[in-house]
Design goal:
Layout: E1 2-6, H1 9-16, E2 22-27, H2 33-45, H3 54-57, H4 64-79, H5 84-100, H6 102-121, E3 122-132, H7 137-148, E4 153-160, E5 176-183, E6 194-195, H8 199-205, E7 208-209, E8 216-220, E9 233-236, E10 239-242, H9 247-255, E11 259-260, E12 269-273, E13 280-281, E14 285-286, H10 307-317, E15 323-326, H11 333-340, E16 344-349, H12 352-366, E17 375-378, H13 384-393, H14 395-405, E18 409-410, E19 422-426, E20 435-442, H15 449-461, E21 466-471, H16 477-488, E22 492-495, E23 498-501, E24 503-507, H17 508-512
Parallel strand pairs: 1-16, 1-17, 2-3, 2-15, 4-14, 15-16, 20-21, 21-24
Antiparallel strand pairs: 3-5, 4-5, 6-13, 7-8, 8-12, 9-10, 11-12, 18-19, 19-20, 22-23
Helix pairs in contact: 1-6, 4-5, 4-6, 5-6, 6-7, 10-11, 13-14, 15-16
Length: about 525
Amino acid sequence: MNRLYYGDCLTIMRDKMKLASVDLIYLDPPFNSNREYNAIYKDETGRPLPDQIEAFCDMWTLDEERERSIRHMPILMRESGIDDGVVTFWQTWMNALRNTRPRLLAYLSYMVERLIYMRPILKPTGTLYLHCDPTASHYIKVMLDGVFGHKNFRNEIVWRRTNAKGLATKRLASNHDVILFYGKDAKVSWNPPHEAHDPDYVEKFYRHVEDDTGRRYTLGDLTNPNKNRPNLEYEFLGVRRVWRWTNERMQRAYEEGLVVQSSEGAVPRLKRYLDEQKGRAIDDIWSDIAPVSPRSEGLGYATQKPLALLERIIKASSNEGDVVFDPFCGCATTMEAAQRLNRRWIGIDIAIHAIKRVARIRLGDRCKLVEGHDYTIDGVPKNLEGSRDLWKRDKYHFQKWAVEQVDGFVTTKRTADGGIDGRLYFAVPEKPDLQSMAIEVKGGKNVSIADVRALRGVLDNDQALMAGLIVMDRPGTVKERNFKRFMADAGDLSVMSMQYPRMQLLTVEEILEGVRFVTPSVAGRGTGQENLPLSG
């Protein structure tokens, strides 16, 4: 069954996906991750997120976790069979970037770590298409040469959009993306793509039209370029030549009306019908696919790719029934294209906001698919036991899940210092910007009044108007009473004659039952889907 995963593609590829199980990988990893988050919220609320959301959405910082991954990368590379020369080059290259391009280093290390796991899940005939812009494509190509081998490089495809990104005063306007195409091995699935002939070409070369059928055709040569073929030399319609076909086949084609002799003594020629031709072979410059139309396809993503682009890639490098995988599926254009072309699909996204929109709009409204029947959603705890299991396996990801389940945005910086884990944004009348609730998540059993006091300190010193604490288990009777008494001292937020407690407490069990923090109009709610049930 088709599958949509919520989580980090690294963990899911490593722990849940089988080796040699995928025919085609398409990935469009976001370099400016903040753009996508802002686009989702703006689409649902009409207002962008406040500037400080960058601290929660920008993944590409060279923090302690990234540094640890970079140090471990040579070991991972050697374990994956990557040549020692590539490993040495990687170490030198990363050291050079550390001081000059730290954000780029963070991005490249993140991508290499995941590309290493993508290669083994591809079938021997599988292919990978990595979509990026020219600011990073040359760096990524070097990485792909190291992971997949330069001999398995197929094409650098240039997709020319019909509108430039913007006018540049001291350089040419940027108007294309790069798609790097690699095979896993020498023999890959391949269906050469074609496009319709240009109308001027048709008028010039297919100028003949059959009176009875209206079919356009051109006349092709029937003589053999190899003149040393005595078995194919004979006289046909009064003309002696070395022909391409045997006499019997030529006679049969003539009787079927496919061989034409314009006049007595003229060399017979073959009808080639326009509607039987594949069209013009596609090269590596794609200028015939327009960007996404907001009216027909747009889901609010700043970098959303058109269906036609994905359909071309999927048709070229897979067949019906094959498995198409997108590890950064975002708004799931890949999933819809695969579904339309009768392929099976797997998609992964690390944001619950994206998963909800994909399930509701892309898979439900557009593709008419039903969860549980046509596809499954995996990786989202559906009960308290599953939540505890996630906490044991990955505390950061548990915090992320809890924040996003209540419609908040999570910080991507992994820390264990009890800081803010996320923010929930809401609208307040007469304030042009969205306001926020600071959210802290505690999955362990030893939640104390000190944690509540620390959150109150955040509320007093932060820009947030409210603060919320999420705990795995409901505190004991005495502890809960002390928590609520302390929280009540923080007072209420008054909005349009409504009172909202400035500090609030939620348990994971309540969240799973659909309970949410009580706030003014939360950005992203109001669609009737804020508590969309997700299985997995």
